[in-house]
Amino acid sequence: MAAPLRIQSDWAQALRKDEGEAWLSCHPPGKPTLYGNLTCQGIGQDGIPEVTASEGFIVNEINKKSIHISCPKENASSKFLAPCTTFPRIHAKSVTCLDISSGGGLGVSSSSDGSMKIWQASNGELRRVLEGHVFDVNCCRFFPSGLVVLSGGMDAQLKIWSAEDASCVVTFKGHKGGVLDTAIVDRGRNVVSSSRDGTARLWDCGRSACLGVIADCGSSINGVAVGAADNSINLGSPEQMPSEREVGTESKMLLLAREDKKLQCLGLQSRQPVFLFIGSDAFNCCTFLSGFLLLAGTQDGNIYQLDVRNPRTPVQVMHRSGAPVLSLLSFRDGFIASQGSHVGKADLYLLSRWSCATLSAL
């Protein structure tokens, strides 16, 4: 894989000033990092800055939305996207989780400042503050309706909120440790949670009840994903008749990203194992790309692409840097990944499903 390029996070703003500068760097594996600068030489009549790069780097193209940089010595290039909009006043500290409603109108986010808020996606206007978790909120997401939010916190509770009036309509209790991730099954009559207590649980939203412990791993489960299985995959049969309160669990796979370096897949309804894969470090996150393809990211920077039909050997292992992979999201014919940074920020980049570095943004 080509050496990853990085750029100052606010480069778009910095380079719109005359003689404004932004740093950039190239990180070839096993070699010293190459550092450089971008400098604005002026603003053109079309509003696009004229930018030059220091020795070792080339500005291939720049427009109002992106800049394309290359480092010929390392045969590396990346296209960095400028943010369409920035909302600096929603949270006082780092954003730990974020989701957008299915219609695109609302956003919900949690922060290390202990808050969870709903805001207008078009302009960042604050709509609701969701208060009720005792400690930090680790995860939040909209139900498919876009009118209800599911959250999980370090207080070992899951909560369901109304996005319309910020009321907490349901609280789930049963985990013995902080809730780290959640997944919604179909339209949301059932949800799945994972916890520091090493369990993944299935919940009945209508009755505020736990329908069962799907897995008990003895190790923190950092991430979960639910996906429809391809017909060729054997999910096994349940040992007991599923509860009538289970809705939409048939033909579904449950993926668990575990702290003990294991990626586990089970039949959601059957509770039967599908595969267990051992990675290079703790798994932080996971997602399905299709009925048989999946992704999982590790603490040491690897992104594994696996085929459920033959999970022993990865389809590919992508490695951009040694920083932890924090989240993965299927997007069009590829996926979006976020990765922690050694300087306290995070990289966000878009990858083709079949290529390791088609587009990159910081």
From TrEMBL:
WD repeats (start-end): 88-129, 130-171, 172-204
SMART domains for this protein: WD40 (SM00320)
Entry annotated with the keyword Repeat: yes
Source superkingdom: Eukaryota
Keyword Protease attached: no
SUPFAM superfamilies membership: WD40 repeat-like (SSF50978)
PROSITE patterns, per database record: WD_REPEATS_2, WD_REPEATS_REGION
Alphabetically ordered keywords of this record: Proteasome, Repeat, WD repeat
One GO term describing the cellular component: proteasome complex
Similarity comment: family membership: Belongs to the WD repeat PAAF1/RPN14 family.
Name of the protein this chain belongs to: Proteasomal ATPase associated factor 1
Organism: Equus asinus
Lineage, broadest ranks: Eukaryota, Metazoa, Chordata, Craniata, Vertebrata
